[in-house]
Amino acid sequence: MLPPNDIRMQRKTLALLLFLVVGLLAVYLIGHQRDRHSSDGHFLPPDTAQLTTATPVVHIYMENSGSMDGYLTTNSQFKNALGHLIAKANGFYENTRLDFINTQVHHTAICDDLDNFVLHLNPATMKVGQTGHTDLNQIFRLILDRTEGDTVSVLVSDCIYDVDNVNTLLSAAASSTTGAFMKAIKRAQEKGHDFGVIIMQLESTFYGNHYEGNTPMPYFGKRPYYMIVMGQQEQLAHFNAHMELENTSTGLPGLKYKFMMSSQPTWDLDPMTARTFTSSFTNARRIQPEHNGLDIHNLTTNQEQPTLSFAVALGVEHLFTDRAYLLDSANYQVLPSQYHLKAVTDKPHFTECDFFRRPICLQLVTDSNAQYAPEVTILLKNNIPAWVKECSYNEHLKWYPQPHQSFALYEMVEGIFGAFHNVKAGNDDDIFRLKIHVAHYD
Prior knowledge:
Helix content: 25-40%
Number of helices: 9
Oligomer: single chain
Largest sheet: 7 strands, mixed
Distance between the termini: 53 Å
Low-confidence stretches: 19-39
Radius of gyration: 27 Å
Structural class: alpha/beta
Number of strands: 20
Strand order of the largest sheet: 4-3-2-5-7-6-8
């Protein structure tokens, strides 16, 4: 028989070994859980993580064709927004540069005085170069060729394809746009970076000539114009956050819509960025999650209800996506088909959502008396937002368009969108993918 001290030592050794085995098993299970998802793609960082980015160098290009004159004849929202953009970029970032652009890039004396540029800006002071005719795709190529490294380029323009025969030339112009942006995306990818674009529609008073082809028509009223931001995605994310590209008192005056595109492949969401939770959106009697807070160990249904509903909280601040796009339920797909997205909200007001900084909430519901599935997949689709088509017309009207509409806007955006679509693999065209596993329904 062993002495008491040896028995105690053996017990301590066994306890230590048991502790180590349990710890290793836990690490394995958690790692295995992550590996199970890892095969599907890569993970979006938690919204509490600090992302490191280099500071961009900002280069602003203002198109100075004759169709832009009408924004400058009054103290317009255009001038307010442009002044705000220049002042804030010059304050945040070093070496901010401003140029005019048409068939070439032009630098004049007023471009050097960033603090007072807008004060001196009028149809006369911006007349430099070939202002009677501009080729939007030539402008894109000029800018994209200069958008490398840490440079963030901003085009300020009415973004009109100058084509005479809309039936045959619009599709060719959109294809040319696709080609220009595909080259820029591939250049960035060859250097290990993702490329991004932010398209913003803004509104301003306009007092000048509106052009249908080469025909000028005097117009006084509201007209849209655009700021298109291009560069490495990490630089654009920094620019978007610090410049506050929103329609707020400290953001961009007159901003109406925003669309963000990126060559980033599909993100997977794990328990650090998504979790199921109980709430007033849920008619299940009980949801018992797995250890990761996302997959469900047991879901007890309410047998008196013909449908099942439950909610998912997301912390997706680091997505390169406009929040309005995230909150539009039309941009999601839920599989299998008996599950539907009932609503998306950014005001969930539940303690389970406090895990995230600025959560959004997805409310899911099944068909009546539907067969419950062991796995539910939620996809945020990569689509052109509905506002782009609503704000576009593609024929010469011979009369004034609606104040929110631009000629061939959809074709231009479709051309840029096509570049990002073409460089992605077939299964990487969604923005994010979320899978919820339900081990058991009661």
